User: Which sequence fits this backbone?
């Protein structure tokens, strides 16, 4: 938290956190708790949750309420990322992986409607049923906090392109990242729009030292720990 707080002082645009289960990577089964703490420890920087896993939340309305609260608590600085999640997480929470994308998309639609609909409404979908949805408080940002969908697969990229939201890759090679984002641009064109550079996101490790050799020598044991322990565990 202290490190993330320092990004605000150094002038970074945003700090990003995400949801993971049954893995030491991230140590954030609830990124919304971290976002709540950051909302009180920072003043300017955007707080980007990349992202919550709507398919693993039993009640998307509760998730809509939490994100709305965070937007209010932060003064309108929240970016709401949604992600499908990885198979290990569905196993950990006993949710069928085959339903992942369909559950995510229905939850997504329900959350956006909860943020934007002024009157109470009923929702009877494939996975979620409510007789009366009406959340308080509502997000500060209008019509709602920005949404991002990190994706790497054809199905995920198609969802991001169809819904006209930013997407991006994490820890992929430059070649793979370029291929993913080029495919995203093609799919976006098929849906009648053109992504900007701000819509194309890449998560990479960055380490700076006096020379490339020194940087590699200093960073290598930590990257080995990341790949061999945190990710592959």
Assistant:
């Amino acid at each position: 938290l202290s490190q993330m707080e320092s990004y605000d002082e150094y002038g970074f645009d945003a700090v990003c956190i995400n949801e993971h289960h049954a893995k030491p990577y991230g140590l954030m089964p609830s990124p919304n708790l971290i976002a709540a703490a950051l909302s009180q420890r920072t003043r300017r920087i955007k707080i980007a949750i990349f992202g919550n896993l709507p398919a693993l939340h039993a009640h998307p309305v509760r998730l809509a309420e939490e994100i709305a609260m965070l937007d209010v608590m932060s003064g309108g600085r929240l970016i709401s990322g949604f992600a499908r999640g990885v198979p290990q997480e569905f196993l950990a929470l006993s949710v069928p992986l085959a339903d992942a994308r369909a559950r995510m998309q229905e939850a997504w639609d329900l959350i956006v409607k909860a943020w934007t609909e002024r009157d109470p409404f009923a929702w009877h979908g494939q996975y979620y049923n409510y007789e009366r949805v009406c959340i308080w408080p509502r997000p500060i940002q209008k019509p709602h906090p920005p949404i991002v969908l990190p994706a790497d697969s054809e199905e995920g990229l198609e969802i991001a392109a169809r819904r006209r939201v930013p997407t991006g890759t994490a820890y992929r090679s430059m070649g793979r990242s370029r291929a993913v984002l080029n495919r995203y641009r093609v799919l976006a064109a098929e849906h009648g729009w053109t992504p900007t550079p701000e819509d194309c996101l890449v998560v990479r490790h960055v380490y700076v030292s006096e020379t490339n050799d020194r940087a590699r020598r200093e960073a290598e044991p930590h990257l080995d720990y990341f790949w061999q322990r945190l990710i592959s565990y």
User: Anything to note?
Assistant: The first helix runs from residue 2 to 10. The two ends are 24 Å apart (CA to CA). The chain is about 45% helix and 15% strand.
